[in-house]
Amino acid sequence: MAMRVPLEPSDEELLGRMMAGDADAFESLYDRRQPSVYRFALRMSGSPTLATDITQDVFLALMRDGHQFDATRGSLTAYLLGITRHRVLRVLAKERTVVSLSSGRGASRADDGENDVSQHEDLLVDPDEPIDHLLKREVVDAVRQAVFALPVHYREVVVLCNLQEMSYEQTAAIVGCPVGTVRSRLNRARAILAERLRIFEANTTVRCDQ
Amino acid sequence: MNCKQFDDLVSDLAGDRLMDAMVRRQLLAHSSMCAKCATRLDKERRLTQVLSSLAEQTERTKAAPALKAKLMNAFAAQQPTVSGPQSVPVQASHADHVQSRPGQQIWLLAAAALILAVLTVATLYLRSASDLEPNLVRKDPTPAVRAEASPSPAAPANQQKPAEPKRAKPSPTRIQRSRPASLRSLGAPTVASNNTEQTTDYIPLTYLADASGAQSGVVVRVEIPRNTLLAMGLPVNTERGNSLVKADVVVSDDGVARAIRLVH
Fold first, then answer.
1. Chain A residues within an 8 Å CB radius of B67
2. Which residue positions in chain A have pLDDT lower than 50?
3. Is B207 near chain A, with CB under 8 Å?
């Protein structure tokens, strides 16, 4: 006998119910979309504190202005990430901070240093950890710092396209520019990152050989 | 394919993004023949690998549970509170939420049905009322409304004009007749205070079987919010609910508003 699996309500259905006052719909929408909003804010700002504040702002804005969402213009995810992007850019412009996340040390001015990303990633060094894993972690850390060092308009396309696996079209809708611009910015950003990675690995190889 | 074209597409190739099979073959063929582009492709593949690891590291991160609780409270706080059984308390359980929703819907449906019924009756009445001629007696206005009363001459209270069937739209200065006898004994029709004003027909506001209190009255010029007119069942544009609308209200001697017409 075939089992009928109940279909999950779409984002638009949940939003409609939420605007009518359905708290359960809001909760479902929050559980579904908060992770991508939070991760985008975190990957752009480097600060869990800022990412939490921005996520809160985004969902408060959704409660207040959710009726402005137009499904014909894009998905709710793109709408939420668009709001997130505006908040992040405003915060970054104010803070003028590039967060340095090096194995839990260093923090932005907005971060008290106790809540940086390392807490999420368990970067404590394990003496039994194989050296190649450690090197891999160092490489990943180096690239993360390189991403944060990118200009904001390059950083956002790397985060959206390469870290959050958005398509060029989705990314273009979020950042508000043509697909061609997204592609060219991503191309340029990756060229910079690739070169920095090459330099880092070359220096690491030199250190290991000495 | 040249190096510039390869450069434009190398990150898509390294990231295994969906692309035309022919284009992919051309890219690979070019990289096999061009050392510089082959090196570029290797770097891009390496970068893609590291970026994937970076993405995995933060893939499971999400905001703290405290943020969710805060937002749920904010959501509950911003919902309008309604007195009576339909109100949903902020800390209500899930079961309470489920039970109050049908009650709220029934209340809204009942309110909508009532408004629809009033509008339907008013529309039907206006269509069938072709011989109303309320004879209005302009008594000495009270000091509070002296400035607002229409400047038409008074007429004897017991004067009755014969009903005249009228199908065409009346001029703005006449009051169209209607069936209810309660309004026939009222005085002469009023005249608009200036020729630039246009008025609707008078719409009865009460349907009393005993109209003994409605032998005479005054016409009072008022300004009413649109929302009030809507609550009275009149079809008005709700987009400017708080704006004021001029109206002439027929108030009989017993102080009851008998009819209203809108003034443009």
1. 52, 55-56
2. 100-124
3. no
